[in-house]
Amino acid sequence: MVITVNGTERRLQRGSSVADLLRELGLAGGAVAVERNQRLVGPKDHVATRLEDGDALQVVTLVGGASGP
Amino acid sequence: MTTPHPPASGGPEAGAADMARRFDRQKRFAPLAEAGQARWESSSVLLVGVGALGGSLAQSMVRMGVGRLVLADRDVVEPTNLPRQVLFEDRHARDRVPKALAAQESLARIGGPTRVEAHALHVDGAALADLAEGIDLILDGTDNLASRYLINDFAVSRRLAWIYGGVVGSHGLVLPVLPEGEPPGACLRCLFPEPPPAQGLETCETAGVILPAVSAVAALQAAAALRWLSGSAAARATFRPRLMQLDVWTQDFLAIEAPRQADCPCCVGRQFPFLEQASNPAAVVLCGRNTVQVRGPGRPDAARVRAVVRAHAREVIEAGPLLRFDVEGLRITLFPDGRALIEGTEDPGLARAVYDRYVGS
Question: How many domains does chain A fold into?
Fold first, then answer.
């Protein structure tokens, strides 16, 4: 299936979850906020939320600053 | 320390007239108007961290005439700050002036009605409780996530508004955390329940940082502060906070509606571990600064320290309340509350030992 992540199309295995996508993006276990089709997907729902063909996702990573964490 | 208002030219009456005219254009902005400006002018803001974001935020608060601005920062100005920390000058970096005091001095030159208070201290849970006395909103000008999670727990526990801002490279993130609103907005831990591991994030040491990104993030934070504090109860209730991400280099902008998460341990579960754990560690490495901050058990015996330092150290400088000296290849800046910045090492054990030798344990 094809989804859009931060405006860029991306192919993903059918049935993948938000957590699967984050793993592919190298963001698993990180502090990441995800919006799917203009609705926030809370951190606890990343594993249970299955993506569908045509989904539009926005992925935002927490920003620390000069000293990071 | 509070700055008095600089005298207005032309006597007190001309000063009052100037002050009435000063905010004319701001009050003509319809969502603000006279009533909003009056609410804004009676508001108190605590700004934690007065560096890049903090300097830009402080300037906005004073220019726009917020009632009271409390500055808190633990650090001193250094040369690498100058390309983006807008309140500091060469001489502040040369003399390693505490950022809070240097900022207060620069802000005083702007004039205006804002009462500015400055505190050169490390902000922990206890300090936050003192600093937040009479405060309506906390602005985040910090440079590390430990401080953000502490501020989030503190603000949510007190039902105080705070506005997170973070910047690195050419991009940044902003989230207003507001205690009112229907439906209520998210807190930092609704979206990011735990801080990520240290290696999981870019820092300004690894990715650098540029002034336009700082300015853009600070502008979004300042606008949210103005809107929240100037707003009537009805206006606040309709303020839907968004998680805003921007990149001034790639010109990508994104805003995500951020409602409160029903399973949030902080704003729903009312658990505040970062506040409860917020101890006062004896030695903290200031990442990427080649500096360790050491805290003593209390105020040092200033006369004894001066005598020891003059006998052993080179380049002893007394700058206002600070004592600075070079010893054992390190530069020590000692604050009156017993806190010291030890430049030239990232080894907390070495820093602690040097502190104990010259300042006292």
Answer: 1
**First-residue to last-residue Cα distance in chain B:** 28
The CA distance from B251 to B27, in Å, is 31
Better-predicted residue by pLDDT, B306 or B107? B107
**Does residue A67 lie within any of the structural domains?**
no
pLDDT at B9: 43
Q: Which domains are delineated in chain B?
A: 2-276 (3.40.50.720), 283-358 (3.30.310)
> Comparing B64-68, B296-300, B339-343, which segment has the lowest mean pLDDT?
B296-300
* A contact residues 18-57, partner B, Cβ 8 Å cutoff: 29-33, 35, 38-40, 42-44
Is the Cβ of A61 closer than 8 Å to some Cβ of chain B?
Answer: yes
A69: in domain: no
Q: Is A68 part of any domain?
A: no
Whether A39 is in a domain gets the answer: yes
Size of interface A-B (CB pairs under 8 A): 118
Interchain proximity A33–B258, CB inside 8 Å:
yes
Owning domain of residue A28: 2-61
Strand order in the sheet with A2-5: A8-11, A2-5, A56-61, A32-36, A39-41
Q: Do B171 and A31 touch (CB under 8 A)?
A: no
Q: Collapsing DSSP states into helix, strand and coil, what is residue B204?
A: helix
- Best B145, B175, B220, B268 member to test A by mutation, with max A CBs in 10 Å, is B145
CATH of the domain at A47: 3.10.20.30
pLDDT tens sequence across B252-295 = 999 999 999 999 999 999 999 998 875 556 778 876 778 898 88
Instruction: List pLDDT tens digits, range B47-72.
Output: 999 999 999 999 999 999 999 999 99
| Residue A10 burial by Cβ neighbours in a 10 Å radius (0-12, 13-18, 19+) | middle
Tell me chain A's radius of gyration from C-alpha atoms. 12
pTM of the model: 0.84
Nearest to A33 among B172, B191, B195 (CB): B191
Reported ipTM: 0.90
Question: Mutate which of B56, B187, B191 to disrupt the A interface (most A C-beta within 10 Å)?
Answer: B191
Residue B75 near residue B51 (C-beta atoms within 8 A): yes
